[in-house]
Specification:
668 residues; 5-stranded mixed beta sheet; 65% helix; alpha+beta
Length: 668
């Protein structure tokens, strides 16, 4: 019979081990929700087996608690391994793709300079050509004088603005610049919006400037109206992401084209890209019954950036709460299974359950506030000791600490990892003193309990000091890794800056030989009073500008894949015919977060799609139209889960993937 019982016991252990391995593998390979369901099913199955065998209710409850604690830790360790594996993969992609960062930084700078060149030079030179052409046709002396003065002023402005393009820093235009621009063109102007993000005001300035330039080219003599007003919520509802909008509208009632061939062919397309990237919408087309034209841009006036909190099963919170479950399981579950009358009565049961919770719950603060968590646990242990002395608890605190002491040691390790070493020195002696007091109160101690306390505290000081030192060693290793990462980031940023500077120098050389030379010639001709030369030089400048822009667009693009970074998403979108708009303050992100954001955007990328990159205080959010293929949505959900984030859907048919910036993989 004993052999049969031993055989059954061995098979039970084997089955339990296999079940735990399955839970661990589920946590590694599947998403949090799916694997957590498996863990809960296993816990309920173990409790059900005990109930089927006819065990008393308190025993079944003890089995459920103990099994739940063990399963929770196994599941949480599997989740940690899943996250570490995802981080290693992301870091490998980042390391492999950083070689392309300088190249794509140079390409992005090239595109920015090309857009600025079009906006600045085309605006000034077009105005000069229009004014000079009109004066030459009318052959009016007063009109000729006005045209020469305008050419001199606008030419000098063009020279200054073209030279500014090669400067390292450029201040975005605000509403003040828009006001001055509208006044210079004598437009019918009204603005009722006072504040907006810098990106929106810069986009508004570019919209108004391009629209006024086009009106001068193609609608001479037309009345031009410029309006900057808050959006009508019925026509432009507040976006689901929290963006409040204002609208820039420029309309004319039609006119005549003064000079053919002045356009560069990319003004409206560039505006559409600029407005969309800022987070707005853009439309341009005929207006009214005549030959009028309207340009309309809706731009963000303010953005609400909510602070996201990830669920308890994300990040280190999964392991922290699993440790809480294990601590409660070991203190209460064991008592429920090993005694006929657990806790010795109702009052001791209530006190013991309450003390178990007070002693276990602070483990949930292990990652966020380990010092406070350790103080709370030691206070709960002292309270337990006092209740034990009053005879209110069963089993005694000495027995509890023998099974429960790993809680204090775990928190001593966390204090060593998370806190500066001077602030964390309290941990080993505090654990030793309180733990020694708990053990010295046991019934097996004879003689002086004070002496026993001193001896036991000295013995406990060794493991407490060991785990604290281990934590300090881990903290130093993390600091070295962070410092190495920061040095690599500085070097990479330096290479990118050097590539941008080289591109700017190349661009400046092209400017000096083309548009800038003609702009200076316009000024010289205006000073000499040669209006015909003014017009010819301005037209030649526009032609040179068009040729330069065509040459930039035809330049050799990178054949390599864009780097897996947030900045690389823009280049990826250009290849797919998509648009990326950025909301929130751009700031450096951890390398792994940038890779996860790039992977998410890549999965959502499609022709004509607009993606939104939203920077939040505690991470980034990538959103776009929901994938039409279910397999792709499952891939996105798995990606978000592996990164420690979440995926959600909106009632507008969009998906949002949130990636936490502070997701801690510090245990690696």
């Amino acid at each position: 019979m004993n052999g049969y019982a031993g055989h059954v016991w061995g098979l039970s252990l084997l089955a339990a081990a296999c079940a735990l391995i399955m839970v661990h593998l589920l946590a590694i390979r599947r998403t949090a929700g799916f694997s957590l369901t498996g863990a809960v099913v296993l816990t309920l199955a173990v409790a059900a087996i005990a109930a089927v065998r006819g065990e008393p209710p308190h025993y079944v409850a003890g089995v459920a608690l103990t099994a739940g604690g063990v399963v929770a830790v196994v599941w949480a360790t599997g989740r940690s391994r899943r996250h570490r594996s995802a981080r290693r993969s992301a870091w490998a992609d980042y390391e492999a793709g950083t070689a392309a960062v300088p190249l794509f930084a140079a390409l992005a700078e090239r595109d920015r300079l090309a857009a600025e060149l079009h906006d600045v030079a085309a605006h000034r030179l077009t105005g000069i050509v229009v004014a000079a052409g009109a004066a030459l046709r009318l052959a009016d002396r007063e009109r000729t004088g006005d045209a020469l003065r305008h050419a001199d002023e606008a030419g000098r402005e063009a020279v200054r603005e073209l030279e500014r393009l090669t400067e390292l820093d450029a201040t975005p235009a605000g509403f003040t610049e828009v006001d001055a621009l509208a006044a210079a063109h004598a437009a019918d102007y009204r603005r009722t919006v006072d504040k907006a993000p810098a990106g929106s005001t810069e986009a508004a300035y570019r919209v108004v400037r391009e629209a006024l330039t086009n009106a001068a080219r193609y609608a001479e003599g037309a009345t031009v109206r410029v309006r900057i007003e808050p959006a009508d919520d019925r026509a432009e509802p507040v976006r689901a992401g929290g963006d409040h909008l204002f609208v820039v509208t420029v309309t004319d009632d039609g006119g005549t084209a003064v000079e053919p061939g002045l356009g560069t062919g990319r003004g409206l397309a560039g505006l559409a890209a600029t407005v969309t990237a800022t987070g707005g919408t853009f439309r341009a087309g005929p207006h009214g019954e005549g030959a009028g034209w309207r340009v309309r841009a809706a731009l963000p006036a303010a953005t609400v950036l909510p602070l996201r909190r990830w669920p308890l099963w994300r990040g280190t919170a999964a392991l922290d709460y699993a440790l809480v479950a294990l601590a409660i399981a070991l203190s209460l579950g064991a008592s429920l299974m090993t005694a006929e009358a657990p806790f010795g009565g109702l009052l001791p049961a209530l006190v013991t359950v309450g003390l178990s919770g007070l002693h276990a719950v602070p483990l949930a603060w292990r990652s966020r506030a380990p010092g406070r968590a350790l103080a709370a646990v030691l206070s709960a242990l002292l309270l337990w000791w006092a209740c034990d002395r009053a005879g209110w608890t069963q089993p005694p605190v000495s027995d509890i600490f023998l099974v429960y002491g790993w809680v204090e040691l775990t928190l001593a390790y966390s204090v060593g990892v998370r806190l500066p070493w001077r602030r964390s020195l309290f941990a080993p002696p505090a654990v030793a003193a309180v733990g020694g007091l708990a053990l010295a109160s046991g019934s097996g101690i004879t003689g002086s309990r004070t002496a026993a306390w001193a001896v036991l505290a000295g013995v406990l000081a060794l493991p407490a000091l060991a785990v604290w030192s281990w934590g300090r060693h881990t903290a130093r290793r993390h600091e070295r890794l962070r410092a190495a990462d920061a040095r690599r980031r500085v070097l990479l940023d330096g290479d990118a800056d050097a590539a941008v500077s080289a591109q700017r120098l190349l661009f400046a050389t092209g400017l000096r030989d083309t548009a800038l030379r003609h702009a200076r010639a316009v000024v010289a001709a205006a000073e000499e009073g040669d209006l015909r030369a003014v017009r010819e030089e301005a037209r030649a400048g526009l032609t040179a500008l068009r040729d330069l822009l065509s040459g930039l667009r035809a330049g050799d693009d990178a054949d390599d894949a864009p780097p897996p970074t947030v900045s690389g998403i823009t280049a990826l979108a250009a290849r797919h015919g998509a648009v990326v708009r950025y909301v929130g303050a751009r700031r450096p992100l951890p390398a792994t977060v940038e890779v996860f954001a790039y992977r998410t955007a890549s999965a959502l990328m499609a022709v004509g799609v607009t993606l939104t990159m939203r920077t939040l205080p505690d991470g980034v959010e990538v959103s776009g139209p929901a994938p039409a293929v279910p397999a792709l949505e499952r891939r996105l959900r798995a990606l978000a889960d592996a990164a420690g984030g979440t995926l959600s859907t909106t009632d507008r048919g969009a998906v949002r993937v949130w990636l936490p910036e502070a997701f801690p993989w510090r245990s690696e």
